[in-house]
Specification:
- There is one protein chain.
- The chain is mainly alpha-helical and 287 residues long.
- It has helices at 2-17, 19-43, 49-68, 72-99, 106-109, 123-156, 162-191, 193-201, 206-210, 213-286.
Length: 287
Amino acid sequence: MIKLLSLILLILLLLIGGKRGLKTFVTIYINLFLIILLIIIYGWGFDPIIPTFVISLIISAVILFLLNKVNIKTVCSFISVLLILLIFFGITVLINNRIYIQGYTEENIEAISYVTFDTGLNMMNLGISVVIIGLIGNIIDTSISISSALYEIHVNNPKLSRKELFLSGMNIGKDILGTTTNTLFFAYLGSCMTLFIFFQDFRYSFSTIINSKIFAIEFTRILLSGTASFLIIPLTAIITAFACKRKSDEDEETENNIRRQKPSSNRKRTSRSDRLNTKRKTKNAIS
């Protein structure tokens, strides 16, 4: 069944996206391989933090550069994603140390009771890794949307200043913000539907639910993913506005240098032609 669904997905991507659709299909399996590799690295006993950070950057590079090539839009987006990852590694460490959301929950103890709990992993760092992997897709999607739109604005109106470009990026971000928030909400809500049914069947009280560890985990992931998606909007807008204007200034300087060189070359050609005309006139006068 999985093979059939994969085939249907590939056919649809080829029909709708063409070569870009094929690249999208390839990136899905590359990222799946990277996640499996990350799990294997966890199993080898490595601390999850550094492998998660490296794999997250590789996933970001694959999605941005393989699908959209290396250009000013993807480079700005990648830098924004890198900075957000650095910021949120620190934030996630702080939150994990405060609310203790690492480890197994009461609801899944029974399901894994036949395996050993002595995994040899740092469960706190593993919890940080899970949160970071969960927000990667959201921040990449938001970042490339902002950088692409802002670049097109700059191309169509290169006279806009950095401040005007930044404000345009923020206005675009406001439109994206609403859909991103709802996407996050329904994505996490859908993944928790089984948990809600579990709570309902066992008649959990509201106070028990909001104080349960698994609720705290999911709620923390929603908050962190949402906050990352919000913060990457102004960050991408600033970086893209600066990069676009810097490139524009460099192009303008290059063009001015070319213009300065042209008159001198014309003067040289003119003076040479004048000398030739003078020689011709002298020959005609002598003859």
